[in-house]
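G., the chain you wanted modeled:
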Amino acid sequence: MAMADASGPQLISTTGDADSDQIIVPENKSWKNFFAYLGPGFLVSIAYIDPGNFETDLQAGAQYKYELLWIILVASCAGLVIQSLAANLGVVTGKHLAEHCRAEYSKVPNFLLWVVAEIAIVACDIPEVIGTAFALNMLFSIPIWIGVLLTGLSTLMLLALQQYGVRKLEFLVAFLVFTIAICFVIELHYSKPDAGEVLHGLFVPQLKGNGATGLAISLLGAMVMPHNLFLHSALVLSRKIPRSSTGIKEACRFYLIESGLALMVAFLINVSVISVSGAVCNASDLTPEDRAKCEDLDLNKASFLLRNVVGKWSSKLFAIALLASGQSSTITGTYAGQYIMQGFLDLRLVPWLRNFLTRCLAIIPSLIVALIGGSAGAGKLIIIASMILSFELPFALVPLLKFTSCKIKMGSHVNHMAISALTWVIGGLIMGINIYYIVSSFTKLLIHSHMKHVLVVFCGILGFSGIAIYLASIAYLVFRKNGEAGPLLASTNSQTVETLPRQDIVDMQFGKASTSNAD
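Predicted structure as tokens:
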């Protein structure tokens, strides 16, 4: 086993295999240790700038100009708080969120939570599939439905990247994030949106009409994703930190800073996309052709937004950024799916098989919609997938809030209570908005329906029964009393069973399937 000196973060081999390296943080307290923690936050931030985010951002800017920018600000702030809680849960307890769910809930609730989490993975993968298909269409004029089929080959690209190790993969993803950021920040400079209107949209909340509410929920669902909570709590376990009070607090602080930096970049990208779309599509000198594109804007029509920067190469540049976003999102989706399966079911599949199965489930609806509805239908499917993610968020968020409330007690009691109250307020607002939209939209659908009264009543009974089950499920998670945890914040450097190096996490990150039970 490789040991670390006091000069900085080192790699430690936990099995003697050169590929199975775990990043080890030195015992000494130093700002240099921060570099050992860089990586997980940028992998997580990809979910904030995936093709689903681009689609909803483009439509928000085209339809409502800068009016929905405040949703991005709120979602980013809420995301930072929630993601930091997920990271803290993994750091302090030595287990990720899915493992806590398996330990806490009985078989039936645990299985249902796993099913919901898997649906979230598929809903997250749909925008990646369609976004990659759009990118291939822009680059090589490949039909959308063929591009959807070709996205299955991205598994091979993922496997090729994994063999170089998690550290290089993290740097590659960070490079892609900054590449996308530079692209849209440059376009933001050339599109010259009104700074006063942008600030007004950022800090003055407004929702004009039910359409704006639905799009706002899509923006929220595309930003704060349920699978990200499972992912972040597991990614932090790839670092071996000092198991002392000081070491754990330092890790939590550095992960907060690292997540803040990554999500700040993602926030700027989202603001740039909405601002560019809002400025271009609401310009007074817009050509009739571009105005028609703005009325039904999707990823496959958005390349004209970059035309005044790079001319005829606009579609190619936008396609490269979109392809980078889709493929980097595939990496995080594969990791999240593997952690979820391992955590809930104690079952591990080799990542290529896991990626292939998930991708097939996402390809089927994407292919059907692409064949029937074309690029416009595929674009609408991205919005629907984002809304599904928003509705499923409580089933990951509530367990996270419950576990962090009862298992993590760091700092003073007052600070802990304040943080817990803040996170519950954020979670309550997100769930309240979702529930309001479901009830109001379904009610309006029934009122304005042209079906016969008997069918309206029948659909109403089924629909409201489903809503009642949805609310009852959330209430069960909220009010169910969790088991008490033992002392988790060690006062010495001694390791317990839960704080030993996580070989299952290391193996999954390097494309291997561990057959041993690390718990």
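The first helix runs from residue 34 to 37.

Shout if anything looks off.
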